[in-house]
Specification:
two-stranded antiparallel sheet; mainly alpha; single chain
């Protein structure tokens, strides 16, 4: 009797190990991507920035600003690419979730095999989502503080304003919210379509539509500043009014909440659909 009662407690650990082992290449890629990005941020901030400042100081006076601008441009571009790749990493998460994590296992029948071995469909999906979700959160918890530090360290070498779409997202938890939402959307696409490649395409397309819709209305998430002196730090809206840098956190948290709500709704729908199909 005690052995039977202990069995369910052992299953989640085994299933977690299975998920980690089965999707180890993707998890390694994610870890390398996050750690590599953080390492590159540290290198740019602590090493490259000093070299750029020295090169700017050594520019011939008769070259005007072209020499200094060329040095600035290289540093700013490097920082920009890091924020862009991290921001749009949710595309890769959606593709992997819909294709490899869920769609492929339903297409091949592996999922149903697991359901016959003391693993309920609900528990199977919960572990499938929980493992990568934890890694997405941990990756964001490491990257976001590092990026905020690097972005603020040498503003004289940075061309990206706080209102740039990728900069706006990766300077706070919104980038994590997008990853979690992509994970949920991919899972739902895989459950609905049950074929890896079509689910992959639908998941990515759905996330692109969601992201573009939010970006289009991002400037409406908080009241604007009606009268302000134009400057590089202000975000001019379509209506000609402005958002100031002090409004970053309210606007950012509103967007984070919207994306997390979409993730929660999609996750709930995925579990409902799975229970209905396996009842």
């Amino acid at each position: 009797m005690s052995a039977v009662a202990a069995t369910p407690a052992i299953v989640p650990k085994g299933l977690t190990r299975t998920v980690l082992r089965l999707h180890r290449p993707a998890l390694i890629v994610w870890a390398v991507f996050v750690l590599g990005s953080v390492g590159y941020l540290v290198w740019l901030t602590e090493v490259t920035a000093d070299s750029v400042h020295a090169a700017q100081a050594a520019c011939p006076r008769n070259s005007g600003s072209l020499c200094a601008l060329a040095q600035w441009h290289g540093y700013s571009n490097a920082m920009g690419w890091i924020s862009t790749f991290m921001y749009y990493s949710f595309w890769a998460v959606a593709a992997w979730s819909g294709g490899a994590l869920i769609g492929r296992e339903l297409e091949s029948g592996t999922a149903r095999l697991a359901w016959t071995q003391s693993v309920t469909p609900t528990r199977w999906l919960a572990v499938k989502l929980a493992v990568p979700a934890v890694l997405i959160v941990l990756g964001g918890a490491l990257f976001v503080p590092a990026y905020r530090w690097a972005w603020s360290a040498h503003r004289d070498l940075m061309g990206d304003n706080w209102s740039f779409p990728d900069v706006f997202a990766v300077r706070g938890p919104a980038v994590v919210a997008y990853g979690l939402c992509a994970l949920a959307v991919g899972a739902l696409a895989g459950l609905v379509i049950r074929r890896s490649l079509p689910a992959l395409g639908v998941a990515v397309a759905a996330m692109i539509v969601l992201n573009r819709s939010i970006e289009r209305h991002r400037e409406d998430f908080w009241p604007t500043v009606g009268n302000a002196k134009p400057s590089a730090d202000l975000w001019q809206t379509r209506g000609g009014t402005y958002h100031s840098p002090s409004q970053f956190w309210p606007m950012h948290l509103v967007e984070t909440g919207i994306v997390l709500a979409a993730a929660a709704l999609t996750t709930t729908t995925a579990f409902w659909l799975l229970r209905r199909r396996t009842a």
